[in-house]
Amino acid sequence: MADNSGGLLDFAQSPMGMGLLSAAFGGLAGARRGAPLNSLGAAGLAGVAGYNAAGANALKNQALQMKQRQMEQLPSLYATDDAGNTSFDFKRGAALGLDAQDMLTLSQLPNASKAKVARTLEIPGINGTKQTIQLDEFGNRVGDGIDSYVKPEMVDLGGSKQFVLPAAGQGYAVSMSPGELAANARGWAGIENQRQQNSIMQDANNINRQAQRTQIIVGADGRNYLIDKGTGSATPAVSELGAQVMSGPLAEATAKNQQNMQKLGGMIQEARKILPYATSSGLGAIRDTGKRFFGKSSPEAQAAAKLGVIGGNMLMFMPRMEGPQSDRDVENYKAMAGKVSDPTIPVEERMAALDAMQILVDKYSGQSQQQTQVQPQQQPLPSGAYSDPEKEARYQAWKRQQGMSQ
Questions:
Q1: Is residue 178 a contact partner of residue 297, using CB atoms and an 8 Å limit?
Q2: Are strands 234-236 and 130-136 parallel, antiparallel or unpaired?
Q3: What's the CA gap between 208 and 205, in Å, rounded?
Q4: Looking at the record, which segments are called Disordered (predicted)?
Q5: 3-state SS class at 164
Q6: Neighbour count for residue 349 (Cβ, 10 Å)
Q7: Neighbouring-strand partners of residue 153
Q8: For residue 216, what are the β-bridge partners?
């Protein structure tokens, strides 16, 4: 016969089996009190009650053990990242049998001791910057201040413009703008040109005044004397080489002409110094004109302006030219002066023009006549010719270059 004890015991422990046993023992317990069946029923009910109580205690112990395991594993359910933020592992909590509401409560425990931010406020920070602070519902500050965004502002420094972050007490050095620099350069160039012009005019006035005060007379010894009309003092009228100067108005003109020659020599030397740095091409002249249109200037244009003033003064102090070729020499002198002040002509041509002007200045400076008077034994030279063969050769070569007849 098969052993069915295991199956009956399992059935008896099931809720259905316990219900049947309770019903059977309850029926027996309803028998007449004191009878054997009544006693058997009462004992059966007591056994069933004891069994149920033991099962309830077992379940309670099992729940306590699960709760204990959950409490032991609870710290491992929290994780903190590098930023200090704490998170809760809901997946592992569910595996441990935690209730959803309990897990929600446990996930909020790390923030229980933190103050809740109710509002923010902007306040001035260090060096005039702005900071944002956090306040709780009671107005207490929460955490450190956070630097706020400050809009950069554009600052005009004259020579440049740049964006900066505004800060209290911050200052910047302001320079002149490109237009102001150009205007300043033009202003100083104009002052220098005016100063030079005034100096030349003053020298010209002094020369004219000195010439008007001077009178040439012939003394009893046959020598010419320069008489100062203002003081009456007399000095021998001789040239730099010691030659006697002609008397009368011609002598006055000669003295004035010699002074003009000295001024011209200085102008020619000054022009030679400035010329390498001046505008010397048609394209350069167009460039200077374009810059002036935008209110700007260049060192080359300023040097060209100085040469323009010098060229005009050269015409003012043009030497007195006499002789068979004087008319042609006057035209050539004016043409050379125009070339010197023309910014569209290359430097080499303008240097050659200065050389030609120097030749004309030397030619009509009176040196040839003076040397002729100092050395009467020499053969008289044609009017306007040089006594120095080298100078005469250079002059004749220049005339051939200009297409002039000898």
A1: no
A2: unpaired
A3: 5
A4: 364-406
A5: strand
A6: 12
A7: 164
A8: 226
Whose structure tokens read 């030349």? 200
Length of the chain: 406
Q: Where are the alpha helices (DSSP H) in 74-169?
A: 90-95, 100-107
Q: Are 385 and 396 in contact (CB under 8 A)?
A: no
> What is the residue extent of each domain of the chain?
181-212+246-401
180: nearest Cα among 300, 297, 303: 297
Give Cα separations from 31 to 38, 41, 350 (angstroms).
5, 8, 153
Q: How far apart are CA 333 and CA 360, in angstroms?
A: 7
**pLDDT by residue, tens only, the chain of 406 residues:** 455 555 655 655 565 566 556 655 555 555 555 555 555 555 555 556 666 666 676 677 777 777 777 777 778 878 888 877 788 888 887 887 778 887 888 777 777 666 677 688 777 777 667 788 888 777 777 777 777 777 888 888 888 888 887 776 778 888 888 888 888 888 898 898 888 888 888 888 887 777 788 777 776 655 677 788 777 787 776 766 666 655 555 556 666 777 777 788 888 888 888 888 888 788 888 887 888 777 888 888 888 888 888 888 888 877 777 766 778 888 888 888 888 888 888 888 888 888 888 888 887 775 444 443 433 333 444 444 455 666 666 667 666 666 655 4
Give me 51's structure tokens: 């069994």
Residue-wise DSSP of 14-28: SHHHHHHHHHHHHHH
Neighbours of 20 (CB within 10 A): 13
Structure tokens at 133: 């602070």
pTM summary value: 0.35
Q: State the Cα angle at 157 between 153 and 162, rounded to 5°.
A: 40
CA of residue 261 relative to chain centroid, distance: 51
b/e 387-401 (16+ beta carbons within 10 angstroms → b) = beeebbebbeebbee
234 beta partners? 227
Query: Which among 132, 149, 153 has a CA at the least distance from the CA of 141?
Result: 132
- DSSP letter string over 1-53? ----HHHHHHHHHSHHHHHHHHHHHHHHHTS-TTSHHHHHHHHHHHHHHHHHH
Structure tokens at 247: 């008397």
Alpha helices (H) in 144-248, listed in sequence order: 178-213
